[in-house]
Design brief:
Blueprint: H1 2-13, H2 31-37, H3 43-51, H4 56-59, E1 65-70, H5 87-101, E2 104-109, H6 115-125, E3 131-134, H7 141-152, E4 157-159, H8 160-180, E5 189-192, H9 196-207, E6 213-216, H10 246-249, E7 255-258, H11 267-271, E8 278-281, H12 291-297, E9 302-305, H13 320-329, H14 337-351, H15 357-362, H16 383-400
Parallel strand pairs: 1-2, 1-3, 3-4, 5-6, 5-7, 7-8, 8-9
Helix pairs in contact: 5-13, 6-7, 8-9, 8-14, 13-16, 14-16
Length: 401
C-alpha cells in the first residue's frame, strides 16, 4: 500500500500537478485569429446568443460541456473530506468523461453551508453547461439537491452515485439472473444499505420488474412503521413482520446487493441463501464479503464487486460518460427513467456478444466470454460509446415525440 500511495501521488503531481488542462479548439496564431477569437469578432456570436439562447449550442462549447460538482461530503469511501480534498476525484471523473465519451468537463467544488446554498450556486453557474453531474454528496441531502435542481434547470442533472450505480447493477443483475436460471420478477432480493446508491438501485429494479425487494440498513429492515425513514426510502419499506434484521431476511434470498461496508455479509448468512445465489458486494475498497471466501462457502454463487482486481466489476464508468453523451447528442433537457433503462439494457446486451481482441489485450487476457466471470462489459470496450450512447439518445428522442 505504501508503494501504491507513492505511485498515486507521483501520478497526480508529475509532470504538472493535477489531471486536467484546458486546450483551445480554435487557432490563435495570427492577428486575424485574435480578431475573431476576441474583440471585435466575438461580438457577433454574443449578439446571436442574446437574440436566441439556443444559439449557445452553435457558437460555444455548452453542448459538450459538463459540470462535475460536489460539496465533498461523501468522498469515495472516505466520508466528509470537504470540498477541496474532493478535487482529485472530480478531476478523475473529468478524465473519464473525456477519455470514454469525448465530453469536456469543468470540475467544481463548492463550499456550502446548507443544501439550499449549494443549489443556488449550481443554478447560478448552470448557463455555462450542457449538463450537471453531481458527485460525492451525502444522503439524504443528495436527494433534495438533485430533485430541486431538476425542477429549476432545463439541462440534464444526474447524481452518478445514485443512478450510475443503479444502471450498472441493473445491467449486471439482468445477465447474472439469466446465467443462474432465474428472473427478475420472481427472485427475492435483499439490499444491505439504504443510502443514495441502494435506494436508486432498488427503485430502478422495481421499474424493470422486480417484485420482492427488502431493504436493510444499520437499524434493520426498512418497514413502514419505522419513524426514521425519509421521502426517498419510505416507498421502499415493507410491511412489519417478524423479520427485523439481515439475518432474519437472508434465508432463501436469491440476490444480495451490498452497498454498505466491508465484511458486512458473513459466511454463515451466505449459507442461508437459495440455490444459485447472486451476490453483489459493492462496498469499496473492501467488499461485504471477499470473493475467495464467498466461493469457498458456496460453489454455486455468481458474484460481482466494485473492484477491478476481481471479476465482474460494477463500475460507474460504464454508465455516466455514455449516458451523458446520449443525452447531449439528443439535446435532452433531463435524464429520465426510460433513458436509464435503455442504458442498462444496452450494457447487458453487449456483454453477451463476442469480446473484441483489443479488449482482451487491454486486460492481458487470451479469452473472455459471457458467463459467471463476465456479466458486464469491460470499461475499455470501445463499442460502449456507440451502443450505450445510441440507446440513450434514441430513448430521449422517442420521449420528445
Amino acid at each position: 500500500m505504501d508503494d501504491l500511495k507513492k505511485r498515486a501521488l507521483d501520478y497526480h503531481q508529475f509532470p504538472i500537478p493535477g489531471k486536467l488542462s484546458v486546450e483551445s479548439s480554435k487557432p490563435c496564431a495570427t492577428q486575424e485569429d485574435l480578431s475573431l477569437a476576441y474583440t471585435p469578432g466575438v461580438a457577433a456570436p454574443v449578439r446571436e446568443i442574446h437574440a436566441d439562447p439556443a444559439n449557445a449550442y452553435k457558437y460555444t462549447n455548452k453542448g459538450n460541456l459538463i459540470a462535475v460538482i460536489t460539496d465533498g461530503t461523501a468522498v469515495l469511501g472516505l466520508g466528509n473530506m470537504g470540498a477541496l480534498a474532493s478535487k482529485p476525484v472530480m478531476e478523475g471523473k473529468a478524465v473519464l468523461f473525456k477519455h470514454f465519451a469525448g465530453i469536456d468537463v469543468f470540475d467544481i467544488e463548492i463550499n456550502a453551508a446548507t443544501p439550499d446554498e449549494f443549489i443556488q450556486t449550481v443554478v447560478n453557474i448552470a448557463p455555462t453547461f450542457g449538463g450537471i453531474n453531481l458527485e460525492d454528496i451525502a444522503a439524504p441531502h443528495c436527494f433534495y439537491i438533485e430533485n430541486e435542481l431538476k425542477k429549476r434547470l432545463d439541462i440534464p442533472v444526474f447524481h452518478d452515485d445514485q443512478h450510475g450505480t443503479a444502471v450498472i447493477v441493473a445491467a449486471a443483475l439482468s445477465n447474472a439472473l439469466e446465467i443462474q436460471g432465474k428472473t427478475l420478477a420472481t427472485v427475492k432480493i435483499v439490499f444491505l444499505g439504504a443510502g443514495a446508491a441502494g435506494c436508486s438501485c432498488a427503485k430502478l429494479l422495481k421499474l424493470m420488474g422486480a417484485t420482492n425487494i427488502t431493504m436493510v440498513d444499520k437499524t434493520g429492515v426498512l418497514t413502514t412503521d419505522r419513524k426514521d425513514l425519509h421521502d426517498n426510502n419510505r416507498h421502499l419499506a415493507v410491511a412489519p413482520s417478524d423479520a427485523k434484521t439481515l439475518a432474519d431476511i437472508m434465508p432463501q434470498a436469491d440476490v444480495f446487493i451490498g452497498v454498505s461496508a466491508a465484511n458486512a455479509l458473513s459466511p454463515d448468512l451466505l449459507k442461508l441463501m437459495a440455490a444459485k445465489p447472486v451476490v453483489f458486494a459493492l462496498a469499496n475498497p473492501d467488499p461485504e464479503i471477499l470473493p475467495s471466501l464467498a466461493h469457498a462457502v458456496r460453489d454455486d454463487i455468481l458474484m460481482a464487486t466494485g473492484r477491478s482486481d476481481f471479476p465482474n466489476q460494477v463500475n460507474n464508468a460504464l454508465c455516466f460518460p455514455y449516458l451523458f453523451r446520449g443525452a447531449l447528442d439528443a439535446k435532452a433537457t433531463q435524464i429520465t427513467e426510460e433513458m436509464k433503462i435503455a442504458a442498462a439494457l444496452a450494457l447487458a446486451a453487449l456483454a453477451r456478444e463476442p469480446v473484441p481482441a483489443d479488449v482482451l489485450q487491454a486486460y492481458n487476457l487470451t479469452s473472455l466470454s459471457f458467463g459467471r466471470d463476465y456479466i458486464i462489459p469491460k470499461p475499455f470496450d470501445k463499442r460502449l460509446l456507440a451502443r450505450v450512447s445510441g440507446a440513450v439518445a434514441d430513448a430521449a428522442r422517442l420521449q420528445k415525440k
